[in-house]
Amino acid sequence: MPKISSILIANRGEIALRVIRACKELGIRSISVYSDDDSRSIHVKRADETYRLGPPQASESYLRIDKIIEIAKSSGADAIHPGYGFLSENEGFSDECKKNGIIFIGPTARTMELAGDKMKCKEIMKKADVPIAPGSDGVVDDIELAAEIAKEAGYPVMLKSAFGGGGRGIRLVNNEKELRQEFELASNESQAAFGKSALFIEKYLTNIRHIEFQLIRDSSGNGRHLFERECSIQRRHQKLIEMSPSPVVNKERREKVGEIAVRASTALDYLNAGTAEFLADAEGNFYFIEINARLQVEHPITEIVTGKDLVKLQIHVAQGEELPFKQQDLELKGSAIECRINSEDPFYDFAPSVGYVPNCNLPYGPGVRVDTYLYPGCNVSGYYDSLIAKLITYGGDFNEARIRMKNALSEFTIEGINTTIPIHKTIIEESNFINGNISTDYIDKFNIIEKMKHKRDQEYKDKAHAAISGILLQSEFVKKSYLAHRINKNQESMDGGFF
Amino acid sequence: MPKISSILIANRGEIALRVIRACKELGIRSISVYSDDDSRSIHVKRADETYRLGPPQASESYLRIDKIIEIAKSSGADAIHPGYGFLSENEGFSDECKKNGIIFIGPTARTMELAGDKMKCKEIMKKADVPIAPGSDGVVDDIELAAEIAKEAGYPVMLKSAFGGGGRGIRLVNNEKELRQEFELASNESQAAFGKSALFIEKYLTNIRHIEFQLIRDSSGNGRHLFERECSIQRRHQKLIEMSPSPVVNKERREKVGEIAVRASTALDYLNAGTAEFLADAEGNFYFIEINARLQVEHPITEIVTGKDLVKLQIHVAQGEELPFKQQDLELKGSAIECRINSEDPFYDFAPSVGYVPNCNLPYGPGVRVDTYLYPGCNVSGYYDSLIAKLITYGGDFNEARIRMKNALSEFTIEGINTTIPIHKTIIEESNFINGNISTDYIDKFNIIEKMKHKRDQEYKDKAHAAISGILLQSEFVKKSYLAHRINKNQESMDGGFF
Amino acid sequence: MKFQIEGNNNKIDAELIYNRGSGDLLFAIDDQKYNLKLLKSTSNEFEFILGNTYHYVKILPSTETKYKIFIDGIVIEIKKHSKITEIIEKTLKSKGIASQANNITSQIPGRVVKVSVSNGDKIKEGDPIVVLESMKMQIAIKSHKDGTIRIIKVKEGSTVSRNEIVAIID
Amino acid sequence: MKFQIEGNNNKIDAELIYNRGSGDLLFAIDDQKYNLKLLKSTSNEFEFILGNTYHYVKILPSTETKYKIFIDGIVIEIKKHSKITEIIEKTLKSKGIASQANNITSQIPGRVVKVSVSNGDKIKEGDPIVVLESMKMQIAIKSHKDGTIRIIKVKEGSTVSRNEIVAIID
């Protein structure tokens, strides 16, 4: 296969910037695409070249396979990196790239189809001796059938989109009334986000951990796992905090489950980077849930503990190279944590928060990495995902990484919008989190929202005198401005110099 | 010894911020001090508490032992961290701390005195079987004597301050006329910077590498080395780029010279973190030059390749703890490079450049660490050292770290002042640097200044059309503003909205 | 001046005692005296050292009864407590409660993807009124009480901002 | 308009061909045609996509003959080349050279720690005139030619800025 010399990035936000950086490291021309709401976004600014896609709606821009292929061809792109979300797990897109002689940096359409259809995938895994999670047996199109299955399994149940992923399209439903209400919403949502709607039902299990294994497999069939990520801290079934290693995975289990994960990738004839997701129960049993056939949001923590650059590896594998390391060459060193900073108001049921960001300060220093599209004066669009930054810290052990996260969170200031930073600040100092006593229902189980509100009240108290001083200063300022104005009517010279 | 609960940081700039961060990680109250030129500096903003020292001149502020001790006592500081430069190697300061019951985070006054007096130190090293660099035998106070010694040794010679360090107070002299001129300047400079003046002369050797070993030793006498740093890329005998590992040090040599370095620290009954500096010749012989009795500017690269936090270790050792690792526990992993970003104009003989920085963009992302005091709207003062930022990158190997440095340098933008970024951009892509063919005369030997100018001309060419577009846009803007002004005389509404 | 921090019942007294000039001021807040050293100021941004600790304060657009303040990276809300603002506050509050009771407001910004009811429809508490899409999520705005739809204020495809009224019920 | 890049002898022709409105312009620079999409502008800052590449340009305070431009993180200098500026430039240049020949200027900002000569002293090329301290370094300003000191313009302890005249020699 020829060496890739230019890559079109069919995505936006922090992941587009991440791929642009990998391109720059490899001397590859980076080509970005943008919607009208993104013309000043960072992926426009940092790419070597940039092309307009269309109106803000994803369906008119980042989901337009035809336009993206057209731009790839006219700009002479050798390859396309899909990032995550959008078209990253769309087999039609992978196929279309192939037809047009463009390398798709990810799995083949066939693998993606199998991985994307959660039901088919489970069948294959059963055959490959990969332990799978208990749940319903197929896609449910009809609301009446859904109600019947849910009744049989017993509430609560999970309503999941067969084409979802990353927590999207998953709803917890407690009774039939809710099921009927949510079935339609979930169906529409999945339609809007993935262009398809097919739901299935799974029994909701408690005291469960979400642990996943990073995979990469080359075109010669060499498959490796890059150890686990513990992603149990979730809200609304979406990951909030991830870490590697997991506090409950020791060396033996890591090797054992890692091997199962590699077997799963072999069963799908997987190509490039992917992730095998498992549920782990309190007894330490691992159940396969699905393969995410793309680069994962939380890939940086794996990069840090393994020292491997996953995006560069993706590109190497995509141009036909063999993986440059064997399984036994890999070593998990130190500890890394990622907090997902979303533009949502955690005090208000995580309602989306969008708009202009007049200023922001990204944390830096020892053990800190930030992947973000924020910059002072940027805009957070309501048309796309709420992930605005990933804050990653690392240290020799979990506690060093954790304390660095605490400090980095307090250095991270974002004006103009609400973010999930307050809930991260709360969790990072919460005793169950510190002791590794976590599960997917952690947020509810330990009243994290209440604890966050309590923490805010404490912060309010601590900052009250300083804040009031600011008000007093402004009132002095206004008084003097007014006096000065009366004297010389020259408002221009009022700023500063009064005290 | 009692646990330290508060630390006064007797320094400014990026190193003060570095220590504040370590304090925050350990739950220690951080206390900063500032001169009148620093009231809006980052170490004022980020410390838990801050106190004014005095006027801008270092002699009236950061060198005032009496004032610093007084603030430490009145604010209840348990310990003082001196950073590097200023009072960090002043044995009187260490002594004064001790007298006042304040823990000095660094070596004892006695050790500092021995380490600081380069001539005495060399004697001790000779006894301890530490190989020392060839050179003159004592301090030279008199210009006539200096001329005689220099003539005997043969020009060029190096004029060095016995109390210097970090390249300060070192001058290369090519003939007697220059010697006489520079002797007085060097003497004054050393007087101003260190409060003492005592010069000695060393023959100037060529094709020499500067390689140093990081040391740390606890109060129970456990000494460890944290491997080497290659610091051969220098200008005016000041380090410009450092890296770890060195391209010419293999495992055997690392162990051998590391052991010599530990022996040197034992000979001085060294306490806390320090650095043994060596010259290495083309044959691979290492000659001890001096011990720097403080934390080094370039400590971050060692932190990265060892995974150890040197500042936190300094604090642990200072409160009497034993080192938590043995020599064989340490492992050098990956590769790290540091570029020193100075506020100097590399196109103008590195003339200092000071003033307001209206805006700056710190690089971030995979493999990047920045230690800096810059922020948008900050001020670079002419009263202090020109080091404004340390850009550190790392990777699995030298080349990955190097390429990441190349990209991070291009992400790093600083408005308002001139910096050494252009020379770093030149070196990082220069073939001798890439191949590890470096020595202390690298800059001159390979015409780096010329190459940098050539690179600038190329950049000018590449950006010309875009820059001219900017001018055309402005002229359109001005034209339309003028027209609009003539129509409604309302200058206020002119900004934006014209195109 | 009197202030009250959100989520706390105590009132706080604060005043400028005097201005020594060149940025040195003396404040009294809740019987504590503070030296304040002003480092930088514009009309709504202040950098200062209070006692011995640095602070950055930006006064955000505030309401008549509340200050919204960005301080050291967090946003805090402080109620005004002068006699006049207290009266205004009460008046606004009583009016607000009376009229708000029949309003169904959007508590997030978003695009209306579906209007689930029509004018005159009888509805029960918890019934969805409209469905919004924001950041790839679909969220139903539900009625907080039983009643009849007097008027729907939004259309499918239109966008609403936070706290905008989407429907009024009787 | 005509421009010339520093360190390069070629002159560059550039003009606005037309303004399509709503931020879309067409430029011709050196016979190349470019579509320019303006994304943001203030009086001296411009963000735009030229062809298919994003640029950020800030026009810095410039002289009568030269533009100083901060572009994409670097500073570049561009000479103006209209007939008028050429004439002005020449005039200024000839004047400048004439008067500058006898000026000894400080090429760095700093504090004068020593004045090594007095008015009327005879000096040789390379003799130190004053010693400056800046960023902990002491740097001597040396004479660039033989001559006699007409007047020393600085005192010990005073500060000088870049390009300030420290002495005039005859």
Description:
- The complex is a heterotetramer, with two copies of chain A (499 residues) and two copies of chain C (170 residues).
- Chain A has 499 residues and is of the alpha+beta class.
- Chain A folds into three domains: 6-105, Rossmann fold (3-Layer(aba) Sandwich), CATH 3.40.50; 134-203, ATP-grasp fold, A domain (Dna Ligase, domain 1, 2-Layer Sandwich); 209-453, D-amino Acid Aminotransferase, Chain A, domain 1 (2-Layer Sandwich), CATH 3.30.470.20.
- Chain A has helices spanning 13-26, 42-46, 65-74, 91-99, 109-116, 118-127, 143-153, 176-194, 251-267, 299-306, 310-318, 398-411, 421-428, 431-434, 442-445, 448-488, and strands at residues 6-9, 29-35, 49-54, 79-81, 103-104, 157-165, 168-173, 199-203, 209-217, 223-235, 238-244, 272-280, 286-292, 335-342, 344-345, 351-352, 355-357, 360-361, 368-372, 378-380, 387-395, 413-414.
- In chain A, the strands form six sheets. Chain A has an eight-stranded antiparallel beta sheet with strand order 13-12-9-10-11-14-21-19. In chain A, strands 3-2-1-4-5 form a five-stranded parallel beta sheet. A three-stranded antiparallel beta sheet of chain A has the order 7-6-8.
- The radius of gyration of chain A is 24 Å and the shape is globular.
- Mean pLDDT of chain A is 91; it is low at 488-498.
- By secondary structure, chain C is mostly beta strands.
- Chain C has one helix at 83-100; strands at 2-5, 11-21, 24-29, 32-41, 45-50, 53-60, 66-71, 74-80, 103-105, 110-115, 122-123, 128-134, 137-142, 147-152, 159-160, 165-169.
- Chain C has an eight-stranded antiparallel beta barrel with strand order 1-2-3-4-5-6-7-8. A four-stranded antiparallel beta sheet of chain C has the order 9-16-14-11, with no helix packed on it. A four-stranded antiparallel beta sheet of chain C has the order 13-12-10-15, with no helix packed on it.
- The longest helix of chain C has 18 residues, at 83-100.
- The model of chain C is unreliable at 95-99 (pLDDT under 50).
- Chains in contact: A-B, A-C, A-D, B-C, B-D.
- Chains A and C meet through helix 8, strand 16 and helix 16 of A and strand 2, strand 3, strand 4, strand 5 and strand 6 of C.
